[in-house]
Amino acid sequence: WQGIENGTGNTQYSGQVTVGSVQSGSSYNLTDSGRGNHKTYNLNHATSGTGTLFSGPDDIWGNGQASNLETAGADAAYGAQLTWDYYKNVHGRSGIRGDGVGASSRVHYGNNYVNAFWQDSCFCMTYGDGSGNSKPLTSIDVAAHEMTHGVTSATGNMTYSGESGGLNEATSDIFAAAVEFNANNAQDKGDYLVGEKIDINGDGSPLRYMDKPSKDGASKDAWYSGIGNIDVHYSSGVANHFYYMLSEGSGKKEINGVQYDSPTSDGLPVTGIGRDKASLIWFKALTTKFTTTTKYADARNGTLAAAGELYGTTSAEYKAVANAWAAVNVGS
Ligand code: ASN
Ligand code: ZN
Fold it and tell me: What pTM was computed for the model?
C-alpha cells in the first residue's frame, strides 16, 4: 500500500510540527508529495553521496534532541516545507525553479561541520551538524537562506563575488527573514536576525543583524566605493539594512520580543511600508530586473522599477524605496 501521510516531526528548533511523508508498505519515508516530492536524506556523517532516505516503521520523526538522527531530518523537512509554502503562497512560485519540482535535503554532513550549503548540481541542500555535532544548521532561517540561493540561481543569478555577490547573499537573508515571519512558528518567531537558533558563536548571538548589520563586527551598514572587495556575507549588509528599513523604518522598534535600532547614513528618517510589500518589491526585482552583473546602483534602479510597477511611481511605496536606499548611502 502506498499513501500520502502527514507525519509528526519533533524538531530541535521549532517544536512539534507536521511533515510530509509517504507510506510504502509497512514503512514511512520523508517524502513531501504535496511539495514536489521534496525528499530528506541522512548522510550519517558522510561527505559525499545522496545518503539514505529517512524511513522507518512509524510516522514520527525525531525526538527534539540532536542525538536522535531523525531530529535534524525533521527540522530540514520542515524548513523545506515552509520555504516551499512561502514562495507558493506569497509569490505564486511553485518550487525553487518555479517548475513544481521539489529539491532534496541532506542532513548530518561530515562531523562538527558548521555550515550549510545549496548546490544547483544536485538541486539539493546540505546541512552540517554544527559544533559537537549537537547544533545542526537546520533552523528555519538557514534552510530558507540556502534554498533561496537556488531561487536566485534560477532568476537574477547575481554572480557570487563583488557587489553582485553581496546582493545574492542579501537575497538569501531577506527571504530567510520573510519565510521565518510567514511560518509564524511559536518556538522560532520571525525576526530580522539570521541564524539566531543555531548558536554558531556559542554565546547565543545570531550570525547577522539586518537592522544594523555592523553589530556582527564585520558587515557594513551602508555602501562605500570599496564594498565589492569584502566577503559577500558582509557586503550583503547594505541590502539587508535596506530591506529592514523599507519594511520597518529607521530607529527603534520591538517585534516579537526582539529590540531593533536601525541607523540611517544620511540622518534622515525612513518610514517603513511593511514586510509584505518590501518582499514583493524585492522578489519582483530579483525575478525581472536583476542579472548576473547587478551592483548596488542597479539594485536601486531595479527595486524602484519594481515598486513603480507594483504601486506606481508617485506612490508612498516608491518614495520609501528611494529613501531606504538613500539611508544606506545608495543614491542616484
Ligand atoms: N552557508 C553559506 C551561504 O549560504 C555557504 C556559502 O558560503 N555559500 O552563504
Ligand atoms: Zn548564503
Answer: 0.98
